[in-house]
Amino acid sequence: MKTLIILAHPDIQNSVINKRLLQEALKEPQRFSVHDLTQVYGSGDIDTAREQELIRAHDALVLQFPLHNFSCPPILKSWIDAVMTHGFAYGRGSDGIAGRKVALAVTAGIKKSDYSSQGRYHFSLSEVLTPFELAFKYYFYAD
Q1: How far apart are CA 31 and CA 73, in angstroms?
Q2: Residue 93: left if φ>0, alpha if ψ -120 to 50, beta else—which one?
Q3: What is the per-residue pLDDT across 9-58, written as a single tens digit (0 to 9) for each?
Q4: For strand 32-36 and strand 60-66, is the pairing parallel, antiparallel, or unpaired?
């Protein structure tokens, strides 16, 4: 089983946790492929067909990113919009992500207690990431 890691970090060289996660994944190229969106698509123009084929060539997908304005970095949002299309990710006969496991590897860079109903942001990290959960549930079950 080979996992595709979609890395979306605007400054990976100065990252601590995301950089470490990346270094660990690169130690096992037989298990992980790392696809750095910032490096590949600095211009922002996503090659939809290329990205969809890359997903099809892997058994699992991990979206790795730091929280950015309580969501993902813009490059990842652009990637999701370009790649997770009708006929690929959802809709009758779509098979692009069917049967694949999908996970998030998210960093927040602050204290865990800040993400709680009593914390600084009044929402848990799980609640903040609900749109991703909802989107992938839709992709897996939409017809």
Answers
A1: 25
A2: left
A3: 999 999 999 999 999 999 999 999 999 999 999 877 999 999 999 999 99
A4: unpaired
Cα–Cα dist 72/32, whole Å: 21
Alpha-carbon distance values, 114 to 9, 15, 60, 109, 137 (Å): 22, 20, 31, 11, 27
Which of 91, 94, 65 lies closest to 77, judged by CA? 65
Distance CA 28, CA 141 (A): 32
Q: Are the beta carbons of 78 and 46 closer than 8 angstroms?
A: yes
Neighbour tally for 44: CB within 10 Å: 11
CA dist., res. 116 & res. 126, Å (int): 9
For the chain, the farthest-separated pair of C-alpha atoms sits apart, in whole angstroms, at 44
pTM: 0.92
